[in-house]
Design brief:
162 residues, alpha+beta, Ubiquitin-like (UB roll), DNA polymerase, domain 1, five-stranded mixed sheet, 5 helices, globular, binds FE2/S2 (inorganic) cluster
Length: 162
């Protein structure tokens, strides 16, 4: 059975017919071509499928597409702007926080959510914010350093403005 839903993804409005058992992850990847959202475990354990829904990170493998009706979604594709990569993305590249990249979309979206509400998180706050995002490659240290470097960059910018 299909149901028509409306949602906003990366500042673009969509109206799409979805199956009532279809997940948001599958809608993004297979119907809308937004394959930056990854699927790992599909049971809410790995965070590879993290997207931001109404300002909060969610595991899109656990959200039914019909539950996204009327919601605002940000995926990794929406992070880049006309001016280029988002500064969180740049930090991950600059600090070598990416290896295979499978966890990276979800990791960056979790980091963005943290930095939006806390511009200068300490290490334990960063580790807590990404605790739902598993990485098999990096050992996490470079990811934590990348997120810390964004808050340092923001600090420098606010100091240079004062
Ligand atoms: S694929 Fe969704 S949490 Fe692992
Ligand atoms: S970079 Fe490979 S899983 Fe994180």
């Amino acid at each position: 059975m299909k149901k028509l839903i409306s949602l906003n993804i990366n500042d673009k409005d969509y109206e799409v017919a979805v199956s009532t058992d279809q997940t948001l992850a599958d809608l993004l990847r297979y119907e809308l071509g937004l394959t930056g959202t990854k699927k790992g475990c599909e049971v809410g354990e790995c965070g590879a499928c993290t997207v931001i829904m109404d300002g909060r990170p969610v595991n899109s493998c656990l959200v039914l597409a019909v539950q996204a009706n009327g919601r605002t979604i940000l995926t990794i594709e929406g992070m880049e702007t006309d001016k280029g990569l988002h500064h969180v993305q740049e930090a991950f590249v600059d600090r070598g926080a990416i290896q295979c990249g499978y966890c990276t979309s979800g990791m960056i979206l979790s980091a963005k959510t943290l930095l939006d509400r806390n511009a200068h998180p300490d290490e334990s706050e960063i580790r807590m914010a990404i605790s739902g995002n598993l990485c098999r490659c990096t050992g996490y240290q470079k990811i934590v350093e990348a997120i810390e470097s964004v808050s340092e960059y923001k600090n420098e910018r606010s100091l240079s403005k004062s």
